[in-house]
Amino acid sequence: MKKFGLTLVAALAFSASVFANGVNDSTAVAKWDGSINKAKLNKYLKLTSAQNEEVADICDYFQEQMKLANRSSKDTDQKVRNAVYGNLKLMKKTLNDKQYADYVRLMALTLRNKGINIDK
To answer: Which residues does UniProt assign to the signal peptide (predicted)?
Structure first.
C-alpha cells in the first residue's frame, strides 16, 4: 500500500509539472493571427461610415502582417512588434483622440491576454 501511495504522488507531481510547462509555452501563446472582430470594434468605438471602411482595411492589413510575422523563422518578435506599432500608427490617423485612446487600451489588453509582450 505504501508503494502505491508513493507511485500516486510521483505520478501527480509529474503530471502537474507537464501541465505547468504547457501553460507557459511562449511559442503556443504568441501565435495570435491578429484577427479582430470588426463589427464589435465598430460598435465599441462608435465609428462613422468613413471610419468604418478605413478601420476594416487597417484590421485586414494588420491580420496579414501578424500572419507573416508568425510564419517567420527569425525575428518573429520584432516583426510582431512592427505589425502592432504599424497598426497603431494607421489607427491614430483614422480615429479621433477618444476613439484612439479606447483602441490603444483595447489593443494592450488583447496583447496581454494573448501573451504577447511588445515592450522589448
So the answer is: 1-20
Cβ atoms < 10 Å from Cβ of 14: 10
Q: How far apart are the first and last CA of the chain?
A: 53
Going from the C-alpha of 99 to that of each of 4, 13, 51, 81, 115, the distances in angstroms are 61, 48, 11, 22, 24
Domain boundaries defined on the chain: 1-29, 31-114
Handedness of CA 22, 23, 28, 30 (dihedral sign): negative
Residue 115's region, left for phi above 0, alpha for psi from -120 to 50, else beta, is: left
Q: Give me the DSSP letters along 71-101.
A: H-SS-HHHHHHHHHHHHHHHHHHHS-HHHHH
Which segments within 1-120 are labelled E, that is strand? none
pLDDT tens for each residue of 48-106: 999 999 999 999 999 999 999 888 888 888 999 999 999 999 999 999 999 999 999 99
97-114 vs 76-94: helix crossing angle, rounded to 10: 160
**pTM over 0.85, yes/no:** no
